[in-house]
Amino acid sequence: xxxxxxxxxxxxxxxxxxxxxxxxxxxxxxxxxxxxxxxxxxxxxxxxxxxxxxxxxxxxxxxxxxxxxxxxxxxxxxxxxxxxxxxxxxxxxxxxxxxxxxxxxxxxxxxxxxxxxxxxxxxxxxxxxxxxxxxxxxxxxxxxxxxxxxxxxxxxxxxxxxxxxxxxxxxxxxxxxxxxxxxxxxxxxxxxxxxxxxxxxxxxxxxxxxxxxxxxxxxxxxxxxxxxxxxxxxxxxxxxxxxxxxxxxxxxxxxxxxxxxxxxxxxxxxxxxxxxxxxxxxxxxxxxxxxxxxxxxxxxxxxxxxxxxxxxxxxxxxxxxxxxxxxxxxxxxxxxxxxxxxxxxxxxxxxxxxxxxxxxxxxxxxxxxxxxxxxxxxxxxxxxxxxxxxxxxxxxxx
Length: 398
Ligand SMILES: *Cc1c(COP(=O)(O)O)cnc(C)c1O
Fold this sequence. Notes:
The chain is of the alpha/beta class and about 400 residues long. The chain has two domains: about 30-265, Type I PLP-dependent aspartate aminotransferase-like (Major domain) (Aspartate Aminotransferase, domain 2), CATH 3.40.640; about 265-390, Alpha-Beta Complex (Aspartate Aminotransferase, domain 1). It has helices spanning about 30-40, 45-60, 70-80, 100-105, 130, 150-160, 215-220, 230, 250-265, 265-280, 285-290, 315-325, 345-350, 355-365, 375-390, and strands at about 65-70, 90-95, 110-115, 135-140, 165-170, 175, 180, 190, 205-210, 300, 310, 350, 365-370. The strands form three sheets. It has an eight-stranded mixed beta sheet, sandwiched between helices. It is globular and about 70 Å long. The relative contact order is 0.18. It binds pyridoxal-5'-phosphate (PLP). Pyridoxal-5'-phosphate binds next to helix 3 and helix 4. Belongs to the DegT/DnrJ/EryC1 family. Pfam families: DegT_DnrJ_EryC1 (PF01041).
């Protein structure tokens, strides 16, 4: 069962503001971390790492998962594994976090920004083919809010051009597309266990490997270019510098924290789904009356309630709602600034034909509501009450 976290002042009645996120702890984190410390095995790839990685592999349906220091670093590993070189192009949505692009820019590759669909806010699969050139080396999809991209169409284009697909699955742990777990659909996937994600250890991530061809090299690149993994398994009697690489291993102390969360996955998800469903139901009439768009979940996409958003009409509609909620003690926030017209996006990237008008509109209007496991009924009520008091579509004045 989820325990309600007491308010900072200890009083459930205090009208403290409802935070956008309150990092959830499942209960065993401290004990597991203490056990890791006592064992003396605090480096990467210890016993807690093995157990946590097995959970990640099971949740993503992948044959193999390697814990990393972040999703950013897992994405960097995908760039190394795909041997990206300066001038290579990587197709990705313009509406995503900077790490999706930076991982490839670090290798000198050029992000090619494609617009998103107005309904799911995922990369618009119908625009991908026009963005393909002879230099395209990867297509990176982001399952925004954990709602699956149109993967059949994405994989069809990718297959026809022989381009590997990578999933930035930072939002999507536990989600699925037509019965297939998110993270299992590309050749490689990247998970995030950042404090703001459904399952967290402060800072952490995982590389999910669906194509066995990458398995051995991934292990080496992640271990400073050495075959230390094989050495520890007794497969070689010394380990050597085998390849390029870096230090992408998560400490077993953090893996211990992460394991406690992964073991509580069902409870965490139940807590988040309850909030998501309450918003979706209780804001439906208000949204319809005010011309506000709520999340679209296509048939065949099961999502892990990573975030709940509203898109009010008009360019300033989002900011107005965020301000209104703030005045009523609710912390709502916007989301990604478009990458294609950001300073670094202009410097390093290219915009696909047609530009990214949907991304620009969505980024300007986005409002994300508080959503976390352990949110109290009272907090949900307060958010809903505050939202429905807002008139997003102002009556015409004469
Ligand atoms: C959070 C996030 C990341 C980065 O995750 P870190 O673990 O903080 O590196 C990358 N991509 C997306 C889409 C994210 O939401």
